[in-house]
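Justification of resources, computational component.

The compute hours requested in this renewal are based largely on the per-chain cost of generating structure records like the one below. Each record pairs the submitted sequence with a full structure-token output. That output is archived, and it is also reused by downstream analysis tasks.
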Amino acid sequence: MLDDSIRELEARSLSLIRSAQTAEELEFARVEALGRKGGFSAFGKEMGKLAAEEKARVGKLLNGARQAVEEAYEARKRAFEAGALDARLDAEWIDLTLPAPGPRRGHLHPITRIQRELEELFSSLGFAVLDGPEVETEYHNFDALNIPADHPAREMQDTFWLEGGNLLRTHTSPVQVRGMERLGPPLRMIAPGRTFRNESVDASHEHTFYQLEGMMVDRDVSVAHLLYFMKTLLKSIFGREVTVRLRPGYFPFVEPGFELDVQCLICGGPGCPVCKQSGWVELLPCGLVNPNVLRMSGIDPEEWNGFAFGLGLTRLVMMRYGVDDIRHLQGGDLRFLEQF
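The structure output for this chain reads:
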């Protein structure tokens, strides 16, 4: 009879709902009983065959059975949701009485650390720390440093030129020019900062790198003064004596000019990619200031002379910490930077 089928469906559906162990099993039970093609929907077709008085009685029985199944389903669904919420609260529990963890503490980039050490060293030796624009004029970057437009030294530096004749400075020497113009002699100054050259990037070259250039202008300045300050600088940075060599070098803004090389601290001398297998790293181009540079800045070279040097901060960091690829320093990889 139809009554028995309804009661059987109700009992079977309630059993499936109560025995469901997961939300998926519960949904399966709901679809089987209450879905569009489920058991209760099938009884609708049978109702049309009944007499009027039977329809009222069977309809009441069918509605009661459907309501019981729906209520059981909703109760079981709420139980699953409550269980899921309890599990989430247990997993994500936070003790609000504990102090907040606070932000992670950062630290200085190794280039910044070396720069500040050098600034402190030279300040103790009576040098002023000067700064200048990274977007420079052609005059301050080249002309005032004895590098006119037709000078072959222009080809030694691959320059990023900008609109309007300006450029990204290829060294921090323009800061020295501005310092001489503003301060006049006698003076001691260093100019640390970022510089730019249109170079191919490899293990020892970057298009963006850091320099520290220095200058001393006074009466009777000699190469001996230059060597004293350079050795003091290197000993302070490396914490020990390092092997250096001084060889002639050409730079338009110094005369005579020298290249001060340091024995590669990565390989110790046999050769590696950083020193290009030579065992030496160019670290300190230096020399006595060319009289033309003094004259261009309004200083009488008959009365005053001086020395100047340029130090690659980025390469110095590589030597100090044993970094074998310059690209690591500005690559933004926190796994590398967190080592310092």
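Residues 250 and 266 are 27 Å apart (CA to CA). The chain has a mean pLDDT of 83.
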